[in-house]
Amino acid sequence: MLFDRVADLDLRIDGYDLALRERETTSGFTRTTTTVSLHGGGHTGRGEDVTYDSEPHHRLVDRGPEFPLTGTYSFGAFSDHLDEVELFPAGEPAQSIFRNYRRWAIESAALDLALQQAGTDLASQFDRAYSPVRFLVSTQLAEPPTGQRVFDWLDRDPTLEFKLDPTPEWTPALVEQLAETGAVRTLDLKGLYENTEVDLPADPELYELVLSGFPEAVIEDPDLTGETRPLFEGHEHRVAWDYPIRGVGAVDDRPWQPDWLNIKPSRFGSVESLLDTVDYAREHDIRLYGGGQFELGVGRGQLHALASLFYPEGPNDIAPGGYNVPDPPADLPGSPLAPPADPVGFGW
Fold first, then answer.
1. Per residue in 231-240, is it b (16+ CB within 10 Å) or e — as a string?
2. Beta bridge partners of 263
3. Is the pTM of this model over 0.85?
4. Which residues are CB-contacts of 29 (< 8 A; sequence separation ≥ 6)?
5. How far apart are CA 83 and CA 99, in angstroms?
6. How far is it, in rounded angstroms, from Cα 317 to Cα 290?
7. Are residues 218 and 240 in contact, defined by beta-carbon separation less than 8 angstroms?
8. What is the largest CA-CA distance in the chain?
9. What are the structural domains, with CATH classification, of the chain?
10. Rounded distance between C-alpha atoms, residue 97 and residue 268, angstroms
């Protein structure tokens, strides 16, 4: 099992610090994350808290370090220790999943540190090699929706591929224009989100339009109701699950044996839950791809490292961060991303 390869790594934490990062996004909101840096034995391991509310980040950084993390552990024992640590001492987060996000930041930093202290990297620990990583560009269309943003990106780099979020305002003409590009690989229906700004109720007309208009695309997170479930008869192999996937139990709870899973590491909270799910998917021939959470720093590189090791050819929604800013730089790397020449720890 994959977790066994890292559970016994020695880990020494002498202290830690926190750093806030903020940036505007193409989705129209200011992204705030916190970088957790764990120090020990002359090394520093880093992880990124991707909690979506800005206030918990500011509150955490303003209060400063207060988690009981210092000591000597095995990595597995440190993960067990985090079960007992109150990660939101200033009050309950707005969404329970934010606890997983913060835990992932600390655990991924600890894994990075333990690997460095052992003088190794993630690929070597798993006896695997880093491969070039295919990625898609996830972009919001204009309002009212047009395909211009996709066309602009393709003018810049005709090899790019895309993940898009259909909405009820999409028209057959727009779908036809987008489909003609041959570059739309994944469509996220966002039908399983609850109490978020991106919730999208089941819409049979939209679902039918997307299924017929993009016959080869992966369709993510449909809300299967009495009206929409029949639309997916014969298309089950195209459906991917994203929002609910936080461990093996969530995979078993899907309405059929999945063909696709979107792996967003922060949703799992613990490294063990993530790796157990990857193990399960490999044992059951479930195809995987990586998903991002608008990471601003080290978290994005960790997504690249995991995709490189386990699903490098998937339709990975993990484009480098420059693709998500309102004014993207001119020198963005294309897909696939080249693996690092000299990997260190959990970095990329």
1. bbeeeeebbb
2. 290
3. yes
4. none
5. 11
6. 6
7. yes
8. 61
9. 4-122 (3.30.390.10), 125-324 (3.20.20.120)
10. 9
Cα 67 from Cα 49, distance rounded (Å)? 14
Looking up tokens 């195809």, which residue turns up? Answer: 287
User: Identity (one letter) of the amino acid at 50?
Assistant: V
pLDDT below 70 — which residues of the chain? Answer: none
Task: Give Cα separations from 22 to 59, 94, 246, 297 (angstroms).
Answer: 14, 20, 26, 10
Q: Which residues contact 70 (CB under 8 A, 6 or more apart)?
A: 13, 14, 15, 16
- Residue 237, SS3 per DSSP: helix
Positions of E strands within 61-118: 71-74
How far is C-alpha 340 from the geometric centre of its chain's CA atoms? 20
Cβ atoms 296, 23 nearer than 8 A = yes
Give the pair of three-digit tokens for residue 319: 């484009």
Query: pLDDT tens, 173-189?
Result: 999 999 999 999 999 99
